[in-house]
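To illustrate the input format used throughout this study, we show a single complete record. The first block contains the structure-token representation of the backbone; no residue identities are included at this stage. The design step must infer an amino acid for every position from geometry alone.
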């Protein structure tokens, strides 16, 4: 160790003082002390015991988890307690006690706002006790050890419920869904309308609704299998309802009143008339607007028919409108036969107001197959024999009656030559496929044509209903007369001075025929037709 006194100055010595240098800092010395050995703390015996207890408890718990053979206590399957039971007992208990869980229950299926109930006991085949018991047994046996313990403790607290399993009767469920689909699956429905009192009631159309029945069946199968009876809403594909078309409705119902008519088949059955309808289409469109309502009421004007079924029944065929007769040549059997067949076809014909009569359409073609025979007829300005010769007499007799009944004639042709059985201007020739005789019932009531051959006459009667005191007669004015000439020809086979008439002469005429209509004491004259009949020269053969 250095001597500390050497650094001290001696007393009395004179020293030249110099600035002393600052002493350098001594090097830092890190001192270490030797570590003293720690004294061991002693664990209290109580702690050791506690830890041992915990370890033992944990070991016991894990042993309980892994070794307990039954469903853990507190576990339920739905509301059915199966804790502590072995799996067989749990399965039996579930099957015995499950019926109240589904009997009388329904699954409500909602399809586009409409509800349909599916009875669970109809579509549930049975509860699967074995699978349900297995579900209960698995609680506390899945997951890591801590999760298992947590589930076991949760079960003891009544907080663990196993899923009940069921078997669905798929055929029954499919049948039930098909019944629902018959109602719920719909095509778009057009709007409808009806007349009620003085209103037009318009019902909006219905949308079309479609859905995947297979997907719905699978979803409900999965749901019911889990004993889940919560409502199920079906996803649908909806086609909007057709819009209300006011113009179409107007075209269908707006119209004039239609009078009652009679059946043409039996001449007795009354066919009811129809009221006339009108309404303001612009107002109707305003009322309907966007068509969001189900029903709309639109005011209409109703006009009842002037002739109701009751009125017609009381007045049907009440009066004779006209009756005419022409003389028959009964000695000409083929001609008389043809007239009889034509009259038979016409007899009983009924024309409702507005109906048109066609002679050819009613009588039909005159053929041998239909019983007609060959007889004289005018054709091409000549007299020839043809099947149906003579059927112009019924048509002419009917024309005479039509004039006097004041019905509307729509087609009529005069003969090429005059005929002996009608006055001038009152004949009507026909030729099937070429010339027809037609007229319309322009009265307010049905008319019936009665045709008969009797006492050497062809008689036509038109019966109907008179609505006034009107009477009709005819007048024919001859405008020109065409006298036939005599054409003489020689025949070498005849003796001199002998003669024979080969063709008789026929006088020709140009005429106008008028209807003279008297009503309420006043007579008016209406042109019925203009006719031109050709002349036919007489041909005489003389001997040389």
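Output of the design step:
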């Amino acid at each position: 160790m250095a001597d500390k006194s050497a650094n001290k100055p001696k007393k009395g010595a004179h020293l030249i003082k110099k600035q002393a240098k600052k002493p350098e800092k001594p090097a830092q010395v890190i001192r270490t002390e030797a570590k003293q050995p720690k004294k061991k703390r002693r664990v209290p015996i109580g702690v050791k015991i506690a830890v041992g207890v915990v370890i033992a408890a944990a070991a016991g718990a894990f042993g309980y988890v892994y070794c307990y053979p039954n469903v853990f206590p507190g576990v339920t399957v739905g509301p059915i307690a199966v804790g502590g039971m072995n799996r067989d007992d749990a399965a039996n208990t579930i099957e015995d006690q499950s019926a109240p869980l589904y009997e009388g229950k329904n699954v409500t299926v909602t399809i586009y706002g409409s509800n349909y109930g599916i009875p669970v006991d109809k579509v549930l085949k049975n509860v699967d006790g074995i699978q349900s018991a297995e579900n209960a047994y698995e609680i506390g046996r899945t997951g890591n050890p801590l999760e298992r313990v947590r589930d076991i403790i949760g079960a003891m607290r009544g907080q663990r419920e196993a899923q009940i399993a069921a078997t669905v009767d798929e055929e029954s469920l499919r049948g039930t869904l098909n019944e629902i689909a018959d109602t719920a699956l719909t095509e778009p429905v057009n709007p409808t309308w009806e007349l009620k009192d003085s209103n037009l009631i318009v019902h909006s159309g219905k949308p079309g609704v479609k859905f995947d029945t297979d997907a719905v069946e699978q979803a409900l199968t999965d749901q019911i299998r889990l004993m889940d009876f919560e409502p199920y809403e079906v996803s649908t594909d909806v086609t909007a309802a057709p819009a209300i078309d006011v113009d179409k409705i107007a075209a269908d119902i707006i119209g004039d009143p239609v009078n009652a008519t009679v059946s043409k088949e039996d001449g007795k059955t009354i066919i009811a008339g129809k009221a006339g309808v009108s309404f303001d289409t612009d107002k109707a469109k305003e009322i309907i607007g966007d068509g969001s309502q189900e029903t709309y009421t639109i005011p209409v004007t109703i006009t009842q028919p002037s002739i109701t079924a009751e009125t017609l029944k009381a007045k049907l065929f009440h009066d004779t409108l006209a009756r005419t007769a022409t003389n028959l040549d009964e000695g000409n059997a083929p001609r008389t036969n043809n007239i009889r067949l034509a009259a038979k076809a016409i007899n009983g014909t009924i024309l409702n107001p507005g109906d048109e009569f066609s002679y050819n359409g009613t009588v039909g073609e005159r053929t041998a197959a239909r019983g007609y025979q060959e007889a004289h007829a005018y054709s091409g300005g000549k007299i020839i024999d043809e099947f149906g010769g003579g059927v112009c007499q019924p048509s002419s007799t009917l024309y005479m009656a039509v004039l006097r009944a004041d019905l509307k004639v729509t087609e009529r042709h005069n003969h090429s030559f005059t005929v002996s059985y009608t006055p001038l201007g009152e004949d009507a020739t026909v030729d099937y496929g070429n010339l027809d005789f037609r007229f319309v019932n322009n009265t307010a009531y049905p008319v019936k044509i009665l045709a008969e051959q009797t006492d050497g006459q062809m008689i036509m009667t038109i019966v109907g209903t008179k609505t006034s005191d009107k009477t009709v007669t005819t007048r024919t004015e001859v405008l020109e007369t065409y006298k036939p000439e005599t054409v003489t020809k020689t025949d070498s086979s005849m003796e001199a001075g002998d003669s024979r008439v080969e063709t008789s002469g026929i006088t020709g005429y140009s005429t106008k025929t008028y209807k003279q209509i008297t009503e309420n004491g006043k007579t008016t004259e209406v042109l019925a037709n203009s006719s031109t009949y050709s002349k036919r020269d007489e041909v005489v053969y003389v001997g040389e």
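Structural context for interpreting the output: Residues 1-34 have pLDDT under 50 and may be disordered. The chain has three domains: 76-185+213-222, 245-306, 317-543.
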